[in-house]
Amino acid sequence: MNNTKCIIISPLNVIIEEQTRKLGSKAVNVNAALTNSLEGIFNIHLHSRPQTRGRDFKNGKFVYVFGHPEQILKKEICNVFKQKSWENVSHIVVDEAHCVVQWGHDFRPDFRHISKLRAILPQAKILALTATATPKMKREIQQQLCMKDVFTLSGPVDRPNIKIIVKKRLPLTGGKTTAEGSFHDVLNPYIEELCSEIGNVPKTIIYSKLKWCGIGYDMVSQAARLVNNTQEILSAVSQFHAPCTDEMKKNIAQNMADTNGSIKLLFATQAYGMGTDAPDVERVCHIGPPSSLECYLQEIGRAGRDGRQSSAFMHYNMSDIATNTIVQPEVREFCLLKTCRRKFLSQYFETEADLDSMLKHNCCDVCEKRV
Known about the structure:
- The chain is α/β, with parallel strands linked by helices.
- The N and C termini lie far apart (57 Å).
- The protein folds into two domains: 5-144, Rossmann fold (3-Layer(aba) Sandwich); 162-369, Rossmann fold (3-Layer(aba) Sandwich).
- Helix 9 packs across helix 10.
- The longest helix has 18 residues, at 179-196.
- The strands form two sheets. Strands 6-11-10-7-9-8 form a six-stranded parallel beta sheet.
- Strand 10, helix 13 and strand 11 form a beta-alpha-beta unit.
- The protein is globular.
- The chain has helices spanning 13-23, 32-39, 49-58, 69-72, 75-81, 99-102, 117-120, 135-144, 179-196, 210-224, 230-234, 246-257, 293-300, 329-335, 341-348, 365-369, and strands at 5-9, 27-29, 64-67, 89-94, 125-128, 162-168, 204-207, 237-240, 265-268, 283-287, 310-316.
């Protein structure tokens, strides 16, 4: 079919902005400005470009339509899709489709209503994409999106160039260590490395809860004041999390994607995971485990995207994986494993891993001990 169009639903601004930038005039971002221009509610003090894009959108001038489900499902946008100019939509793509299950129940309920587009665009096929879905989650995604006659294409989740290392950090029980002390103990070697040999520091992402991102950044700032190249060190560290503005996130994502970028150490929550593409990250460190293995796999997947050997560290204590936390039982089991961690992940996601051809010292910390 000629002149076909595609609607891509994505969860994060970083992904949408990166893709619309790459596709140029063929793509449109369904954001508040575009919706307002369709309603005729447009601030005359702003540039007129959104009004022009609004007219082009109505007339079906774009090939690719990007947006969050909250914007795509607005009445004004759906009314446009009902017009003849949009009858050639061939695909509705749901990127990071695990969000339909993980976020759709309460955090972002519009993910559960994406299937409404089927009634408006019955000719369009649905393509659901995710790198971190178990077989059970795949079935839930199909159900939520009202997918029938489904063809599933799956590949292994294993990234053989990422060594998986899990370590215990200082416990919080017994009154000997505070939460701050346990966090500092893990982070201090990274700070010392940054301050003493900044030119040789591998690009590193440290995942933690929001509170600890700020504390970690402050720790680096304090250490930087004690050395001569203070400004150089401060320019090499940053934070990426929900409270950051969209502009800040965009700038950080672009800096990380640049192999000549200044950032060497990024403190991040799970907000820096899906869709972000920094090719030369060599280390990922979790201080405290993520809540699920799906999140864990997504986040360690930021490492080694250029194919080079990389490492994924996770530091935990028993308080982190206690039964009264949000950490899922399989994460607790993963932390406490005495057998190959890579094999456990592959079995959990029901995919294959080529363990026989892998050098044991590059596999995981458990296998390395058996060399």
